[in-house]
Amino acid sequence: MEPFLDWSQLIFRKEKTMTRVTSAANDEILVVSADSLLTNNITNNKTYKKKILHNKKIIIALLGQIELITSNGIIEFDKVIENIIKQEINPYLVENQIIQTVEKYFSKYYNKNFLQVCLFWRENQHFLLRAFQLNGDYKIMPFLNYAFGYDYKTKDNVIKVMNHYYFDTGEGAGNHLLGFLNTNPLDFSIQTVRNAINNTDFQTVGGDVFTVTLDKHGIIETYVNGRKNSFNSSQLLEMIK
Fold first, then answer.
1. Which superkingdom does the taxonomy of this entry point to (predicted)?
2. Do 171 and 204 form a contact (C-beta atoms < 8 A)?
3. Which of 60, 91, 148, 212 is the most exposed place for a label (fewest CB within 10 A)?
4. What is the pTM (predicted TM-score) of this model?
5. Sign of torsion over alpha carbons 74, 75, 78, 80
6. Under the phi-then-psi rule, with left for phi > 0, alpha for psi from -120 to 50, and beta for the rest, what region is 98?
7. pLDDT given for residue 211 in this prediction
8. Which CATH superfamily is domain 7-239 in?
9. What are the domain boundaries of the chain?
10. Planar angle of CA 79, 51, 230, nearest 5 degrees
11. Over the stretch 199-214, which tens digit does the pLDDT of each residue have?
12. C-alpha atoms less than 13 angstroms from C-alpha of 51 in its C-beta half-sphere
């Protein structure tokens, strides 16, 4: 079957992330929050999707083209990546598998959009961030302005230490605001995304705020709108009604 080539039917607008992700950390805890609204740029229909994934070691936030409409159906990259992290907890291997798998779909369907991946984990007492963008023209590149914090490893990839820093990226965030954190990471992360949702200028940011935390003991907890709540994909639609 020939690839689906009508780019106007892709769910996500080109060059827009249509998502808001905020992460913040100190030495005790790392927090990642995101909105849950998806907007079809053709019909303007609103749907909801969890944009933060996790296993017992890793947190992943997704921006950009999370879904791809093809002649064979809809490819949901969140579910593709969720399947990867169900089988693998090593962040370096997870990154490689995400790149290989997503590029395979981009190549098969001649996709010209992008998927942005924020990969978080803890290693040697550091909360770490590896953020990269997969483009339809087969380029892998960092998408955050990395002029903050300090590098954990630089031989192969840029990995940043998040301790005492935050980043705010996606729709309405401008040039990926980064800075030193001097407040509670959980409150800061949730409230920043909530403020974006409440801002009527940001039409593609909305729904509930989903949050995942990772503490220095390796314990992961999940929240919806600031309240502890164990969430998964099947629960999402019920929780946001």
1. Bacteria
2. yes
3. 148
4. 0.85
5. positive
6. alpha
7. 98
8. Aminohydrolase, N-terminal nucleophile (Ntn) domain (3.60.20.10)
9. 7-239
10. 90
11. 988 888 999 999 999 9
12. 34
3-state secondary structure string, the chain?
A: CCCCCCHHHCCCCCCCCCCEEEEEECCCEEEEEECCEEECCCCCCEEECCCEEECCCEEEEEEECCEEEECCEEEEHHHHHHHHHHHCCCHHHHHHHHHHHHHHHHHHCCCCCEEEEEEEEEECCEEEEEEEEEECCCCEECCCCCCCCCEEECCCCCEEECCCEEEEEECCCCCCEEEECCCCHHHHHHHHHHHHHHCCCCCCCCCCCEEEEEECCCCEEEEECCEECCCCHHHHHHHCC
Q: Is the pLDDT of residue 54 over 80?
A: yes
Token pair 């403020």 is at which residue?
Answer: 195
Cα(130)–Cα(209) distance, rounded to whole angstroms? 22
Output b/e per residue, 102-124; b: 16+ Cβ within 10 A. Answer: bbebbeebebebbbbbbbbbbee
What are the φ/ψ torsions at residue 133 (nearest 5 degrees)?
-120, 130
Task: Please report, as a single letter, which amino acid is at residue 237.
Answer: L
Q: How confident is the model at residue 46 (pLDDT cuts 50, 70, 90)?
A: confident
Name the residue with tokens 């820093």: 165
What six digits make up the tokens of 161?
A: 């230490």
